[in-house]
Amino acid sequence: MKRLLALMLLALFSTGVLTACNTVAGAGKDVQSAGEKVEETAEDCKDGNC
To answer: pTM here?
Structure first.
């Protein structure tokens, strides 16, 4: 019984970790995309014509 409980907890923990990795990777892509847009806007406004 203890072994089954330990395996279930391990599976739950592993699922949580893998989900978190995908979430963090997705958030990183979103932040990178937002940063690129800010950089493009800054380049466009460099000469004062925003």
So the answer is: 0.55
* Whether 2 contacts 8, CB under 8 Å: no
Spell out the per-residue pLDDT of the chain, length 50, in tens. 888 888 888 888 887 777 777 777 788 888 899 999 888 888 888 877 76
Separation CA 18–CA 8 (nearest Å)? 15
Query: Quick one: CA torsion of 24, 27, 28, 29, rounded to 10 degrees?
Result: 130
Q: In this structure, what token pair is assigned to residue 13?
A: 């923990």
Are the CB atoms for 49 and 42 separated by under 8 Å? no
Residue tagged 């806007």 (tokens):
41
The candidate with the shortest Cα–Cα distance to 14, out of 25, 2, 6, is: 6
